[in-house]
Amino acid sequence: MNNRYSAGIILLIVGAIILLGKAGLFSFLGTMFWPLLVLIPGILIHVLYFGRVLPAVALVPAGMLVVYAILFIFCNIFGWDSLRYLWPLFIFGVAVGLFEYHLFGSLKQRYIKTSAIGLGAASLICLLLIALWGWGIYVVALICMLIGLYLMFGSRVRW
Residue 159: inside a domain, yes or no? Predict the structure, then answer.
């Protein structure tokens, strides 16, 4: 009697899984949560490094994976067309990985820190240029107009 009951529960669960799969639940979960397959290895590599299992150089791909997973989660939520503006974050991921390697590595080599800062600055410059190329030029025009108004009417102290 016990085996029939267990088999009935298993068949009930299998049937429910099949129905949920046909309803599209698993495809929805797969399309929304696949970046976790990138985030989990990145966090796991961090844990293994801080647990003294992996060398410090493993922090380079770990930092990259975490940044890329956050970027992919953002694109899943707000749409993949935003990636045309956020592509410099791929460069930033390398910068984060190198900077973690510099911070936590035993060898404090200067070129690693310089490379990380250079890549981070290049990423930031690219993000700013993309912002200025599109809607950012309106912000620059507005700031220029506000500064002009302040210079004309804001301060009565003359040079």
Answer: no
Tokens of 96: 């984060």
Same-domain status, 62 and 120: yes
pTM: 0.71
Q: Which residue has the tokens 């495809």?
A: 27
Shared domain check, 131 and 147: yes
80 in the same domain as 58: yes
70: tokens are 């956050």
Q: Would you say residue 52 has pLDDT above 70? A: yes
**For residues 127, 131, 137 and 140, what is the CA-based torsion angle, rounded to 10 degrees?**
-60
pLDDT in tens, 75-89: 998 988 989 889 999
Q: Are residues 42 and 28 in the same domain?
A: no
Report how far residue 63's alpha carbon sits from residue 51's, in angstroms, rounded to the nearest whole number: 16
pLDDT band at 158 (very low <50, low <70, confident <90, very high): low
Separation CA 38–CA 140 (nearest Å): 37
State the CB neighbour count (10 A cutoff) for residue 95. Answer: 23
- Residue 154 confidence (pLDDT): 75
